[in-house]
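Re: Re: ligand-bound prediction request (bumping)

Still looking for help on this. To restate: I need the protein modeled with glutamine bound, output as structure tokens. Inputs repeated here so nobody has to scroll up.
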Amino acid sequence: MKIGVLALQGDFAEHIRMLKQLDVETVEVRLPNQLTGLDGLILPGGESTTIGKLCVDYGLLQPLQQFGQGHAMWGTCAGAILLSRDASRSQPLLGLMDIRVARNAFGRQVDSFEADLDIEPLKQATNTRAPYHAFFIRAPIIEAVEGTAQVLATLPDGRIVAAGQGKLLATSFHPELTADTRFHEYFLSLIDS
Ligand code: GLN
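Reply:
Sorry for the wait, this slipped through. Here it is.
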């Protein structure tokens, strides 16, 4: 299995580290032809406006949209914003998932927080019971989940922080910044689904 990580800006190195721990072959993607032969792609956390603008500059927007129509794709935080159809403001988006997000919904960097989440599909895919400990850093909220998209995880107050749609996955939080590889395993399970 070969997984690409969009490597224009943000914490792509952390995703690559996680994938290597799972013995997965990885490719840093900066140009359209680097998508060839990949089984899936991760869009990392970072700054969604910057990543979106760089996608436009590198001619990646359309190739990524095409890739996401037939392959597994997972966006973490800024990556989740890129996957959305609507970020409640004007910026380049892939528009692949029927979700509406609100950026920086929990406040500033100092308002970063951690939370234990109960994510049934993740537990099933990894055959584990422990809650998932998630890190939120200037995170977006998923305000609306429409079409065939589905809610995957909420905070205790009901706010949506993860959604799935076929082989597409969006998380407000950062599994790449933890020692818990279960979310990456869950993503890999979508490829064969
Ligand atoms: N606040 C960033 C944005 O709106 C996302 C932050 C992150 O990826 N940790 O793009």
